[in-house]
Structure prediction request, 270 residues.
Amino acid sequence: MIETSQPAGTALPAVTIRDVTLNYFSPERETLALSNISLDIAQGEFVAIVGSSGCGKSTLLSLISGLMRPSRGVIQINGKEVTAPSPRAGYMFQKDTLLEWRTVLDNVLLGPELLGLDRQASRGRAEDLLTRYGLGEFMHSLPGQLSGGMRQRAALARTLCPDPELLLLDEPFSALDYQTRLALSDEIAAILANERKTVVLVTHDIGEAISMADRVIVMSRRPGRIKSIHDVAYPSFGPSRPTPFQARKCQEFGMYFQTIWDELDAHHMQ
Ligand SMILES: Nc1ncnc2c1ncn2[C@@H]1O[C@H](COP(=O)(O)OP(=O)(O)OP(=O)(O)O)[C@@H](O)[C@H]1O
Prediction:
């Protein structure tokens, strides 16, 4: 196991990705999905990854989560190599994956249960998260009684219940209608700022990426490589960070949007 030693006074990155390559093998072919990816993600940073379909965004998240191992290279969380799924990383998928036959509360408790944590000890946190996310009245309902946005909030509560340091979000809003999506990205940004988590968000939506993230990583078409990295800041808004909704109205939003759009568009022309 490789461990990173860090000079005194330098904060250890939350995630370190070093020269990572990933090949998929099937009987018919070998697919080079990711090639030589290197990236550091700071503690508490919110990073968004954008890129065209099939460029390896979900593959990269699976590698960070430990669900898959790289063919070459190393991934570390807080300086420790990731060799298997870890309770330090919470993974939220595009589809909410709530179990329809379990109540909302029991769904949230599934996260800690799967990690072998004590159910009773987790119950207080689960109830607290659901109440804070406006689902207090629906704790004992089945997921079928919730709207799409409420289901994603319940799924977020399940991911946050074991208190992971790192959140991996794989297009968590893509199944929702546009208005719910905007409202929920505002709510989730507020929740995450409050929880002070490190977040990696994969999305197709440039607006979502630049309104929520501190840094946007643009990936090239397969084999996925890092094409460019954009630091996102909204000085026109003032010293505090705008909410995603406010960010969309800032002048910088259009500028970032155009730059990243041009980069992604250039992919399609290749
Ligand atoms: N299990 C697998 N076996 C073989 N090839 C795979 C497998 N999973 C993904 N791939 C291939 O690897 C590449 C990257 O896939 P991945 O799902 O990571 O891309 P993505 O950027 O998340 O795509 P999308 O935005 O469409 O979800 C694609 O070309 C895909 O076809």
The pocket of adenosine-5'-triphosphate is lined by residues 24, 26, 31, 33, 51, 53-59, 204, 222 (CB under 6 Å). DSSP finds eight helices and ten strands in the chain.
